[in-house]
Amino acid sequence: MLDLADGPVTLVWLNEVGGLTGRVHGADPRFIKWNPLGSGESLAAEADRLRWLEGRHPAPIVRGFMIDGDAELLVTGAIPGSSAVANEWAARPENAVRAIAQGLRALHALPIAECAYEWGVDSRITAAESRGVSVPGDLRAAPAIDRLVVCHGDACAPNTLLDGAGRFAANVDFGRLGVADRWADLAVATMSLGWNYNDYDEGLFWQTYGIDPDPQRIDYYRALWNAT
Fold first, then answer.
1. Is the dihedral of CA 142, 146, 147, 151 positive or negative?
2. What is the pTM (predicted TM-score) of this model?
3. 34 within 8 A of 72, measured Cβ to Cβ
4. Do the beta carbons of residue 99 and residue 170 sit within 8 Å?
5. pLDDT tens, 39-80?
6. Which of 104, 109, 98, 31 is nearest to 64 (CA)?
7. Among all residues, which ones are annotated catalytic?
């Protein structure tokens, strides 16, 4: 049996496929994620990737995983900090933008030879088509790979945590982590800034990460994200 709720639980997230995330409060804070099987978002995959990340990159520690009927349950330890889209950081987006870039830069520095997971263009298109998604033909011709890295797979702003001083603390939601061109993360991370902040400096992201924007790769990987 999993060590589930022995204190008050607050619902903190509802994803696009009906999955729920709740925070358990008390002396042993943790998060419980529930997802329907076959939703296209695999908590088993996330548990495997989090276990691989342990000791390599700041991320939640797996406390347990199980399949219960037609659903999956994943329990992870809580990390001190708050989401980059929390009100305090929405009001100070420069902290959030900098932390998002710092987190990706650190993740992308991990050695790809140690990572058994893959998130390349072909596998993403195949996975989308297996769900019945019709992927436009022009997306099958990806730009030449710039640099293969360990990608987050969902580098949107809410998946970065900041500590109380506004510094990068950790990343969360790693169900798609895998080796891919770094622009697959960078394009989506910067696109998500516009979804979450009213007044922000995208240039601060590129300066902090340490790269100039590449319009062709940005356009392609944003289109692939939206299509798949």
1. negative
2. 0.93
3. yes
4. no
5. 777 899 999 999 999 999 999 999 999 998 889 999 999 999
6. 31
7. 154
